[in-house]
């Protein structure tokens, strides 16, 4: 069986449609932006960020749909407490919906149906240096202690551009498809609570680092081969570390290629990392079985029931 058509049908089933879910997200985004323009006394710029902007979003199976926006104030960050600046935004959108949450890296506006979130808009608040153009992200909750507040250097825009330029044409389309496959694997096999799962940003950073296109002899593409290659590279990146309770644990570290240059897997505990490693090994086994047998049964174990049976 040629599995590539099944991968393409799977991709069509899980990715956000330009005139469907993405249109709904844009409408929610625009409503929040109108609210900010009406209520803020200081001018701001904004930009799309995250999976929406990079074209790597998928339909969620455990959570609500989301869109990430950068809200940029051209201010001297040294003159302002980051929590104070976040409060400007919170007050501007407070009451826009029944649920607006103050989170450490952002302000989140939820749209609900029968008290269950169905969409949310994450507002990342940034200070932009007027001379250099460098940006810093406001970190801190509403009542965070002073030592838990910071202006963190942030170059997500640079990363999004790097992903866009990493590969072009059909190679770039395959990169985005494989990122979506790994995101769906994550949603199927990991809890969405806390830091139990690798983030979508972390998986995207891993793909930016290790992905290689996989073409076939007839100038086509093999998404299975490309996914196997990437998962192998991720697995090979784990290194043994000692944990006093768990003993030797395999950990994966990967530096974000742009500011803040942090380890995108750092928040995962050793126990969570142990489970991550075991699931990567299991995923590789399922993928290899599909490659050898040319059947989709193990791919449905890997990616869920949206993967076609035939």
Overall morphology: globular
Summed over residues and divided by their number, the pLDDT gives a mean of: 94
Instruction: Please tell me how large the radius of gyration is.
Output: 21 Å
Quaternary structure of the protein: single chain
Order of helices and strands: HHEHEHEEEEEHHHHEEHH
Taken as a percent bin, the fraction of beta residues is 15-25%
What separation lies between the terminal Cα atoms? 9 Å
- Proportion of helical residues: 40-55%
Tag the structure with descriptive keywords.
310 residues; alpha+beta; Beta Polymerase, domain 2; 2 domains; seven-stranded mixed beta sheet; two-stranded antiparallel sheet; 10 helices; 19% strand; globular
Question: In words, what does this structure look like?
Answer:
- By secondary structure, the protein is α+β, with helices and mostly antiparallel strands.
- It has 2 domains: 16-154, Beta Polymerase, domain 2; 159-303, no CATH class.
- 44% of the residues lie in helices and 19% in strands.
- The chain contains 10 helices and 9 strands.
- The protein has helices spanning 4-14, 21-39, 50-54, 82-93, 156-166, 169-189, 200-210, 223-236, 270-293, 297-303; strands at 45-49, 65-73, 99-102, 107-113, 116-128, 135-139, 150-154, 239-243, 247-251.
- The strands form 2 sheets. Strands 1, 2, 3, 4, 5, 6 and 7 form a 7-stranded mixed β-sheet that branches.
- A hairpin with a 2-residue loop joins strand 4 and strand 5 (116-128).
- The radius of gyration is 21 Å and the shape is globular.
- The model has no long low-confidence stretch (mean pLDDT 94).
